[in-house]
Amino acid sequence: MDILLxxxxxxxxxxxxxxxxxxxSLGHRPVPVTLPAHAGATLDDQVAAVLAAVDAASGExxxxxxxxxxTLAWLAADAxxxxxxxxxxxxGFPAADGRPYADFFPLRDGAMPFPGWAAFEGPDSADLDxxxxxxxxxxxxxxxxxxxxxxxxxxDERRYDVPVVVVCPEFGPEQARKWVEAGEVPELxxxxxxxxxxxxxxxxxxxxxxxxxxxxxARS
Length: 220
What we know:
The chain is an alpha/beta fold.
């Protein structure tokens, strides 16, 4: 099966290298997606890149979205509901219609740079050693303003028929269920089939638990 891998903020497709290798060993065809991040790129540009990967896939792919890119994976399900077999959300939840995509941190010179590790102290980054932190920070790609502040538009309610798997890294499945039940994740509250699975990691399991993450994705 084709498995499309979409990284979160500041990441390119190479973040999935170890996960992709593990998925290939399990007999799947991983497709890491590098999102447009040039000056002037917009949320629509990034959605178009994901949809191009969906359209090029063999059969009905699984779309994996990490962190903020959970919204990109969900937008793919919205735009191509019959073509997406499943959405896997790793450490993130889809934004609702009309909400900004990812205006989480300050903008500078038309982009949202990586804010530094103080913003992620605690469970998010506790399993990252100093070398991995430096590697992530050095490779971080500023998120264009047109992406970070882009408005999410969802139009096809058939997206709620697409099965969803939520991989829970720095939070647990029970906590995720409570957020959904409390109405904090309205898109998943309306979804017909949502499964929550645990992974013992921080926010970036593709670095710290790539084989385990690949197995969870494949199992879905």
